[in-house]
Amino acid sequence: MKMLPSLKERNRYLVFETKKKKDIKKNIWKGCLDFLGEFGCGEAGLWFLNDKWDEKKGKGILKVNNKYVEKVRLALSLNNIHTIGVSGTLKKAEKKFIGG
What's the pTM value of the predicted model, to 2 decimals? Predict the structure, then answer.
């Protein structure tokens, strides 16, 4: 049986920038766990897109549930990770904020 479109979780793609290029994945998870807790991180559906991480520029993309975008942005900012922008599609996030 197919799930109704109104029941599907909506995702947003959060483009971020950081000066710390080492252990970025660990820093993101630590910041979110400290601020949101384990349950909150699970509900947020936080997903680090490895293939979209550009170590030279220090930019990357996170996939987040649309209801938790602002909370994740706050958790990242507490960890000195700056949010560049948010988009509804991965293609637009790359094109608009990363440049290609």
Answer: 0.87
